[in-house]
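2024-03-11 09:14:02 INFO worker-7 job=invfold-0412 stage=load source=structure_tokens
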């Protein structure tokens, strides 16, 4: 069997071409962050009336409809992480946002318009806006010259004209505060501010300019941890609630005296309290922690409390709407839960779940074109790229997850779909004293539209499973379906479907092992099938083996020392005769399957190798000098089509080509590889990115935005009137074959003003009302002549006998009128006497003529 040890001469030239700078892609190819940003980086806020929910999500501020859960608005403008969002106290239709980029931005969030940008010059870690502070906000910034030391300052926002302003007038309020936004709170409409850090509580009164400090012991006699974790202030009373690392809540009173203060203790949480929030009237206190349970304490009593359990993951923030009708909890798994004030679940906004560790990679579901990867522990999440929301979650492990550190539990490590998405294969493992492995095969049920477990195989390998793939052939024939798994036990196994002949069996189909292969006792690391399914490539450490999938004969081997094979893939379409492999020593190799020789090689540290299923293109991502670079090439051409150097400063873990619903129009030949598929990346921080030739735009179209806004609007008589008016305008002009001529006029400017202009900038109603009323009136000259009824004089003589015949004549004239006129001919109108004579002639019996 041929074994290629070194590259040929043309391979060396290919390596030089790969390093050429002439093919660097121009700036038209942009990297766009399209999902995965945490929505729990800051406390979410409700708009007035609780119609919308605004939350920070990475560099953006997202606005969701509370009624429909749809993304209505995406506020872009910050260049770094958004750390705070607050409604403007004196204009509730505007919003303040702070960011690590050192700016505070003022938005008209209903229209997505950036009004002003205030440059502070420091990293802003938290933001607070108070009604009592007319022209200033409070932020937490790092203290100059000191590491890990922060201070609460007041920033004066100038009202001068202009969009970009500098806010350099800062006043220090508190020193030595915690960087977390939940560790600082304002009470009694801004009369005082309370801040906690470690075991210290400090309260500053603005009018008296008095600062009181209180301290607790780090641990108590019973071993409790008294470290502060969060703080909240009562809206009407002098009461401060603090959360602690041991799960206790303390209610502080009389804290305006340094020595006569008192506090009471509430305790339910078994771990640290993550956030606290008082209700609108202060009659109840909400708390959340790692237990995924929202606790409602009534009147500060330890006995009166209500619970909303099973919220999915730890609660990071708790928010309350301005009218008190809704609560909102932000969770560590990138989920926002909207809850009614009676602790009834209302809505869930679920983004890309940040798993503890993504081991499955990025996999595309052929049915929904959703990205599939690790989600909640033991679950697969199906993530929709268009809406940036989770479609659904599939429980694979089917075991209750226990939140306890150091406990080894079953984890999902591998996943693969068949070509049409009919079968799903998963691998889960649990490592205690002995390794526990389970291979599960799931069948998609068309009736329930979900996957059902078909076969469970315990210990399919004696060691960890390293790779898994289906053979991409026609799934209508179950005999041709095949699954291959590779393991560290130095073998690869082939699994096929068997039909159960037992009539009492619950399932007619099941999976069984058909073949076991190995190569010199080397560990099997990767596997993939050729496009037609006739060949199987399996890598054994530094060697790639090629097998015939029908007879399982070893056809040839390829090796390129030094370095173990990191990933392999076959070429597709016109490049199906090539096999690509990347080593962990920084080589990218292309072998020709017909000549069993090395076609070319390149010195490139490839960490991700991803082929496009719809074209010959292959994407390779390299990692060098702590920066990622993108290379796109065809196997039959050593020169890459596109090179995007240093396109990401984070390490790329996985990549996937997602087929487009409609091919995109690409102007340049260099980017034709983006026409039918879109390339997505997942970084080591679990942020989802893509490359595009277009600028970063919102994924929502204007029509979908308008739909989302209209769905959240209340039903009023005026909205019903507008809806009826729009429905009438959408009707066609042809009704049951009758041609009706309408004089179409331009849309009324008054209606446009009412429908498309924000309410807070509209002219007065007295100005718009006459214009709007006049636009609804119909002028006399627009009245159609066809609406005037024709006067028809009926003959009284023999009226009853002739009525049917007259109707027939009238219909014939109406049917014949338009064709004649269309031919340019004129018709002669009969007089009444002629019509009477014609009716008499029609009554004469001419049947006697048939005798001749």
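2024-03-11 09:14:09 INFO worker-7 stage=emit residues=852
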């Amino acid at each position: 069997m041929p074994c290629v040890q070194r590259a040929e001469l043309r391979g060396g030239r290919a390596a030089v071409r790969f390093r050429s700078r002439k093919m660097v892609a121009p700036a038209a190819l942009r990297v766009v962050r399209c999902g995965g940003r945490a929505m729990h980086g800051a406390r979410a806020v409700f708009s007035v009336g609780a119609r919308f929910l605004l939350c920070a999500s990475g560099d953006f501020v997202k606005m969701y409809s509370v009624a429909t859960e749809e993304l209505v608005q995406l506020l872009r403008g910050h260049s770094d992480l958004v750390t705070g969002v607050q409604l403007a106290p004196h204009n509730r239709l505007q919003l303040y946002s702070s960011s690590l980029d050192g700016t505070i931005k003022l938005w008209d969030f209903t229209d997505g318009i950036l009004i002003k940008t205030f440059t502070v010059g420091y990293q802003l870690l938290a933001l607070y806006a108070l009604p009592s502070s007319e022209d200033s906000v409070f932020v937490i910034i790092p203290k100059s010259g000191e590491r890990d030391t922060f201070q609460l300052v007041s920033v004066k926002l100038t009202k001068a004209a202009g969009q970009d302003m500098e806010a350099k007038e800062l006043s220090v309020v508190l020193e030595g505060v915690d960087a977390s936004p939940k560790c600082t709170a304002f009470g009694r409409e801004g009369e005082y501010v309370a801040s906690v850090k470690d075991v210290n509580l400090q309260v500053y009164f603005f009018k008296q300019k008095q600062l009181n400090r209180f301290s607790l012991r780090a641990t108590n006699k019973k071993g409790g941890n008294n470290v502060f974790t969060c703080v909240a202030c009562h809206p009407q009373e002098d009461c401060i609630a603090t959360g602690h690392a041991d799960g206790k809540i303390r209610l502080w009173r009389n804290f305006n005296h340094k020595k006569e203060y008192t506090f009471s203790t509430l305790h339910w949480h078994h771990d640290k309290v993550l956030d606290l929030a008082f209700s609108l009237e202060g009659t109840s206190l909400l708390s959340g922690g790692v237990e995924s349970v929202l606790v409602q304490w009534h009147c500060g009593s330890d006995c009166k409390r209500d619970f909303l359990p099973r919220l999915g993951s730890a609660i990071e923030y708790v928010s309350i709407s301005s009218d008190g009708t809704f609560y909102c909890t932000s969770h560590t798994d990138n989920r926002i839960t909207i809850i009614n004030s009676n602790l009834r679940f209302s809505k869930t906004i679920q983004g890309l779940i940040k798993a503890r560790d993504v081991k499955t990679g990025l996999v595309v579901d052929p049915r929904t074109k959703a990205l599939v990867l690790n989600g909640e522990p033991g679950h697969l999440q199906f993530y929709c790229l268009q809406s940036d929301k989770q479609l659904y979650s599939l429980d694979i492990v089917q075991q209750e997850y226990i939140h306890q550190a150091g406990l080894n539990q079953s984890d999902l490590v591998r996943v693969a779909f068949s070509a049409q998405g009919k079968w799903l294969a998963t691998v889960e493992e649990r490592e205690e004293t002995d390794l526990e492995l389970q291979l599960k095969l799931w069948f998609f049920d068309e009736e329930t539209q979900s996957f059902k477990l078909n076969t469970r195989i315990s210990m399919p390998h004696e060691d960890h499973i390293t790779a898994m793939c289906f053979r991409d052939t026609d799934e209508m024939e179950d005999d041709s379906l095949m699954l291959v798994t590779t393991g560290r036990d130095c073998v690869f196994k082939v699994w096929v479907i068997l039909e159960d002949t037992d009539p009492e069996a619950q399932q007619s189909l099941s999976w069984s092992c058909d073949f076991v292969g190995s190569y010199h006792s080397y560990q099997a690391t990767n596997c993939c099938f050729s496009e037609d399914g006739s060949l199987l490539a399996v890598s054994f450490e530094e060697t790639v083996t090629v097998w015939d999938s029908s007879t399982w004969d070893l056809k040839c081997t390829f090796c390129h020392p030094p370095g173990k094979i990191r990933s392999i893939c076959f070429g597709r379409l016109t490049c199906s005769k090539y096999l690509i492999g990347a080593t962990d020593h920084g080589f990218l190799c292309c072998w020709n399957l017909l000549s069993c020789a090395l076609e070319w090689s390149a010195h490139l540290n490839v960490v991700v190798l991803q082929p496009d299923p719809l074209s010959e293109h292959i994407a390779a991502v390299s990692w060098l000098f702590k920066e990622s670079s993108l290379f796109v090439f065809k196997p039959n051409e050593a020169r890459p089509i596109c090179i995007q150097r240093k396109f990401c400063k984070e390490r790329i873990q996985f990549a996937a080509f997602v087929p487009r619903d409609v091919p995109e129009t690409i102007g340049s030949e260099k980017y034709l590889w983006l026409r039918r598929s879109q390339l997505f990346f997942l970084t080591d921080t679990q942020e989802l990115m893509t490359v595009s030739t277009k600028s970063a735009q919102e994924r929502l179209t204007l029509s979908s935005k308008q739909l989302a806004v209209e769905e959240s609007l209340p039903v009023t008589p005026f909205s019903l009137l507008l809806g009826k008016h729009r429905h009438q305008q959408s009707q066609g002009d042809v009704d049951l074959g009758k041609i009706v001529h309408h004089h179409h006029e331009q849309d009324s400017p008054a209606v446009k003003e009412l429908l498309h202009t924000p309410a807070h900038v509209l002219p007065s109603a007295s100005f718009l009302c006459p214009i709007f009323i006049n636009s609804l009136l119909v002028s006399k000259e627009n009245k159609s002549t066809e609406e005037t009824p024709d006067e028809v004089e009926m003959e009284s003589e023999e009226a009853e006998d002739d009525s049917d015949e007259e109707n027939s004549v009238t219909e014939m004239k109406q049917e014949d009128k338009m064709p004649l006129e269309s031919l340019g001919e004129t018709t002669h109108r009969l007089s009444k006497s002629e019509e009477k004579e014609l009716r008499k002639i029609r009554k004469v019996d001419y049947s006697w003529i048939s005798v001749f």
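2024-03-11 09:14:09 INFO worker-7 stage=report msg="Residues 717 and 723 are 10 Å apart (CA to CA)."
2024-03-11 09:14:10 INFO worker-7 job finished
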